Each structure stands twice: as structure tokens, then as C-alpha cells.
């Protein structure tokens, strides 16, 4: 399995920590060249050094995925530096628990911008390059894209939308050498999950309905699924949505 992605060029968002970093590590380990995207430049730079050894600035882009121009620039930087794109993994996301009646307009817009607009902006920019090389997109949705979760109206809406985007693109490009798929992780040992804060007055029985009886997963376990779907071993997988959730949805 060490060279199953040998020669592939992968753009991974959210690459500075959590699942994005784990995906970057697994893809690199299996032979891919990874171009990392995340907002915080110093943490991203260090992550890319840790993942792929000493690399120059050209191997990452400190970009806000909610900004379409920054997404387009990040994609172009990868193409200019590495010569193309074979894989786009849209990992970057944001989940804040809020009482629905108290969600401000800017908070709602932020939830959609990071979790849905970002994957669209990056996919749109990468499509010509992916089509040229017969590449693929792996969108990281969530079990929140398959079920309702309390205090997560914005996040659930965006993640449901990301599944819709995945299926729409899969249908549109059925006749092309491009694959588009999504995975829906459950709870993982990542900073986003372990750093959750709760608004006053939440019903913790409702919050815990999202938990798997097997507990939290390691990010690397989910990253291995991403690596498989992104590889040529999954050449028959197109338009699929996979739960990777320690049995939660069962």
C-alpha cells in the first residue's frame, strides 16, 4: 500500500491539523505529493514540514476556503508548482453549537461559507485540471449530513448540502474521466471535537445522541478511507456517500 498513490498530486484543505493533517500524512505515505491548504500559515507550514520533510512555501497555500478568489489562487499555485492536480480532498470545516433561535446572520453565513461554499469554490477551480488528468474529488461531509443534530442547524444544513453537491457533480460528470465521492465521518479525536464548547441551557441527552457507542475514532482511521477512495483501487466508486462513523448510523 505504500505506493498506491505514487505520482499523484493532491490538494488537501484543513491540512494544518486534525483530519486534514492525517489525510496529508496518509497520502504522502502512499506516494502522493500533497499541497496543503489552511488559514493559519505558520501552523500549516509546520504541518507540511512534519508530513513531507523540509518543503518550501510552494507546497502549501495559507488561504481562507470561504473566499473564492483565495481558493482559485491556491489551486493555481499547486498547478504552477507541481504540474497539475489528480486529487482534491475537501476537509476544512467548522462546527459551532448554537441555539437555533439565537444564530446571528453572520454566524449562519460563516457555517455555510466554510462547510459548503469552500468545497464548491475549490472544486470549481480544480475541475479543469482534474478532468485533464482523470482525477477525483473526495468531499468530507459528516454524519451531520445524514441526520439531524441538535444545536447544529448551520452545520447540518451545510453538510447535507455538501452531499447534494457531491451527487450533482457525480451526475454531471458521469461521462467524463472524473470521480466525485463523499465520506461522512462520526466523532474523531481532533481539536474540533475535543475543543467543543456548549451554549448555556443545552440538553446534553440530545447532544449525546450523535455519539457512537464505540466512542471516538482516530483521525488516521478516517484518513485511510479517504486514501482508498482517492486511489485507482476505487476506480469503480463514483457518486458514493460512505459513513465512516464507528457504527453510529447502524
Give your account of this protein's structure.
There is one protein chain. The model has no long low-confidence stretch (mean pLDDT 92). The chain is of the alpha/beta class and 250 residues long. A seven-stranded parallel β-sheet has the order 3-2-1-4-5-6-7, sandwiched between helices. 43% of the residues lie in helices and 14% in strands. The protein contains eight helices and seven strands. Helix 1 packs parallel to helix 2 and helix 1 crosses helix 8. It has a single domain, classed as NAD(P)-binding Rossmann-like Domain (Rossmann fold).
- Could you give me the name of the CATH homologous superfamily? NAD(P)-binding Rossmann-like Domain
Query: Strand order of the main beta sheet, please?
Result: 3-2-1-4-5-6-7
Order of helices and strands: EHEHEHEHEHEHHHE
Biggest sheet features? 7 strands, parallel
Helix content: 40-55%
Question: Residue-averaged pLDDT, rounded?
Answer: 92
Amino acid at each position: 500500500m505504500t505506493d498506491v498513490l505514487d505520482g499523484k498530486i493532491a490538494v488537501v484543505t484543513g491540512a494544518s491539523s486534525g483530519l486534514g493533517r492525517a489525510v496529508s500524512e496518509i497520502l504522502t505515505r502512499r506516494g502522493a505529493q500533497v499541497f496543503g491548504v489552511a488559514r493559519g500559515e505558520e501552523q500549516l507550514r509546520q504541518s507540511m514540514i512534519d508530513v513531507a520533510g523540509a518543503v518550501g512555501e510552494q507546497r502549501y497555500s495559507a488561504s481562507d476556503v470561504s473566499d473564492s478568489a483565495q481558493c482559485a489562487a491556491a489551486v493555481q499555485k499547486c498547478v504552477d508548482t507541481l504540474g497539475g492536480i489528480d486529487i482534491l480532498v475537501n476537509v476544512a470545516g467548522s462546527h459551532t453549537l448554537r441555539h437555533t433561535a439565537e444564530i446571528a446572520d453572520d454566524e449562519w453565513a460563516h457555517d455555510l461559507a466554510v462547510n459548503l461554499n469552500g468545497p464548491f469554490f475549490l472544486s470549481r477551480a480544480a475541475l479543469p485540471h482534474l478532468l485533464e488528468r482523470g482525477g477525483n474529488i473526495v468531499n468530507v461531509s459528516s454524519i451531520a449530513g445524514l441526520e439531524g443534530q441538535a444545536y447544529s442547524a448551520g452545520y447540518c444544513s451545510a453538510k447535507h448540502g455538501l452531499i447534494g453537491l457531491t451527487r450533482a457533480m457525480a451526475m454531471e460528470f458521469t461521462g467524463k474521466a472524473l470521480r466525485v465521492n463523499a465520506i461522512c465521518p462520526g466523532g474523531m479525536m481532533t481539536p474540533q471535537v475535543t475543543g467543543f464548547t456548549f451554549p448555556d441551557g443545552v440538553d446534553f441527552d440530545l447532544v449525546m445522541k450523535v455519539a457512537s457507542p464505540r466512542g471516538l475514532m482516530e483521525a488516521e482511521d478516517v484518513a485511510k478511507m479517504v486514501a482508498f477512495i482517492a486511489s485507482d483501487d476505487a476506480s469503480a466508486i463514483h457518486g458514493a456517500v460512505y459513513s465512516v462513523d464507528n457504527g453510529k448510523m447502524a
